Amino acid sequence: MSLTDKAIEQIRELIRTGALPPGSKLPPEPDLAAQLGLSRNLAREAVKALAVARVLEVRRGDGTYVTSLQPSLLLEGLGGAVELLQGDSVALQDLMEVRRLLEPVATALAATRISDAQLAEVKGHLEAMREARDDVEQLNAHDAAFHRAVVSATGNESLLTLLEGISGRTLRARIWRGLVDDKAAGRTLAEHEAIFRALSTRDAALSQAAALLHVSNTEQWLREHLRSSEPLPVGTTERN
Amino acid sequence: MSLTDKAIEQIRELIRTGALPPGSKLPPEPDLAAQLGLSRNLAREAVKALAVARVLEVRRGDGTYVTSLQPSLLLEGLGGAVELLQGDSVALQDLMEVRRLLEPVATALAATRISDAQLAEVKGHLEAMREARDDVEQLNAHDAAFHRAVVSATGNESLLTLLEGISGRTLRARIWRGLVDDKAAGRTLAEHEAIFRALSTRDAALSQAAALLHVSNTEQWLREHLRSSEPLPVGTTERN
DNA sequence: CACTGCAATACATGCCATGTCTGGTGATCG
DNA sequence: CGATCACCAGACATGGCATGTATTGCAGTG
Asked: Does any CB of chain B come closer than 8 Å to the CB of residue A80?
């Protein structure tokens, strides 16, 4: 185990035990290095690794601080991880299966908690999708926002971040492109409407069923296109 | 955005686009630094950050390689993230809620796929728990193995890693200590037996119900003890 | 002659020390 | 009250030495 790894462990321990509470400031690099018993260089490596993991935040010219350690921050890196395992069809289908398991129950929970304002937001994205018929970019954006709004209504930040992470921006974009090409956008839109109607009546079971139908159809579509079409187009989507 | 961050992005892009497939070797540090247009120090920081995220693997004296990029590897860091947000009771309850949503459906799925051999393994851990009545350490270990075996029967690696991650080793240990103190170990054991019996008959609905009951009871226990007892004992559990 | 064992070597990362540069903050002065 | 400047933080570069690993080549042996 390298000294850098030990340093990372030490800092993590300090945070875990509460010696470094969220928002607190770390010593300057030279002092930190001295405390950890290593050179500035390795201290920087450790800090950088934890900063990438959203555990620390370095403000240039000011200092290094512990982040808020909110679940939404810590679990955020999950999305980045998902982006890397594209191309492995097995892994993609596994993730879709997780989404098929989790999103319906999350939607059911949302049905029991959603407020009128949140319902209105969901409706807004639904209508935006309806109007953006052939604009893949817009469709994708409002689709993502639709699901985000639904899951967000559970009030569970961790749940939201997890689901957002496993959904995967790039994957979703690819699916929508394919759906439009297949003229299947209409059916997908209808599925969203079903989810919204179920949420409107606060019917948990119905919401769950509608969500399952939707995710399941998407999963089915993905499975077929992973089998038949080209191995996998990668890097053809630009970032936001 | 710092040069190190750019370097991390560049390497990630190379991996994402397939220019650096899993298992491939990166150039030596000096060459890599030259290619990225920065000093060896910053190249090391970038590599270290990606190594911590299990995207790269550095073998001293040999070279730096891209890992297998298996979901189980990439999502592994999630467990480490969860350990850090202890003490924030809201975040803990949110995570328990996710587990309450996900584990029952995962168990139901497992019921439809579990093999006789896997069933035997589950049974083994159940009996081990029964015999280890008052040994918190043993109870905890076999409890974790029990759930791991169940979810593992789904054949979905990503699902397994996610659930293991959000369960949290340290949290589970704390709960078991409390359960034994409350003389509630017997009831918890009975819940595990119910899950096993349901799995034995390959009854998905029953398995789901049994798992929900179990996780829900655990969640309830945690909620009460987060409210009443001391703020939170931290750092009182040794690592494995 | 082919093969095995080992030692020397080349090359990889690990780690350190020290320097300059640049941005941010806060005090100071008009 | 606002502009300015000094200081302190991290950002980045360079060069060197330490140490671990894989490979190469040679010796000895079947």
From this structure: yes
* Chain D footprint positions (protein CB, under 7 Å): 8-16, 19-22
Looking at the structure, tell me whether residues B99 and B204 fall in a common domain. Answer: yes
Residue with nearest Cα to nucleotide C17 C1': A39
Q: Does A142 share its domain with A213?
A: yes
Residue A53 has its nearest CB partner, among B52, B82, B94, at: B52
**CB within 8 Å: A84 and B74:** yes
CA distances from B167 to A29, B104, B190 (A): 35, 14, 20
CB B68 within 8 Å of CB B24? no
**Cβ atoms A92, A200 nearer than 8 A:** no
Residue B97 inside a domain? The answer is yes
Q: Is residue A233 part of a domain?
A: no
Q: How far apart are CA B120 and CA B156, in angstroms?
A: 19
pLDDT in tens, chain B (240 residues): 899 999 999 999 999 999 999 999 999 999 999 999 999 999 999 999 999 999 999 999 999 999 999 888 888 888 888 888 766 678 888 999 999 999 999 999 999 999 999 999 999 999 999 998 778 889 899 999 999 999 999 999 999 999 999 988 877 888 888 887 778 888 899 999 999 999 999 999 999 999 999 999 998 888 887 766 544 444 444 443
Q: Amino acid letter at A130?
A: R
Range of the domain at A161: 74-228
Does residue B154 fall inside a structural domain? Answer: yes
Size of interface A-B (CB pairs under 8 A): 142
Q: Is A79 on the interface with B (CB under 8 A)?
A: no
Which secondary structure element, helix H or strand E, spans residue B59, and what is its range?
Answer: strand B56-59
Specify which residue's alpha carbon is closest to the C1' of nucleotide C11: B61
Decide which of B38, B69, B100 is a domain's last residue.
B69
In a domain, B235, yes or no: no
Q: For residue A227, count CB atoms less than 10 angstroms from its CB and return exposed for 0-12, middle for 13-18, buried for 19 or more.
A: exposed
Nucleotide lying nearest to A44, CA to C1' measure = D10
Hey, of A48, A103, A163, A236, which one would you mutate to test binding to chain B, going by the most B CBs within 10 A of its CB? A48
In this complex, do A16 and B74 lie within 8 Å of one another by their Cβ atoms? no
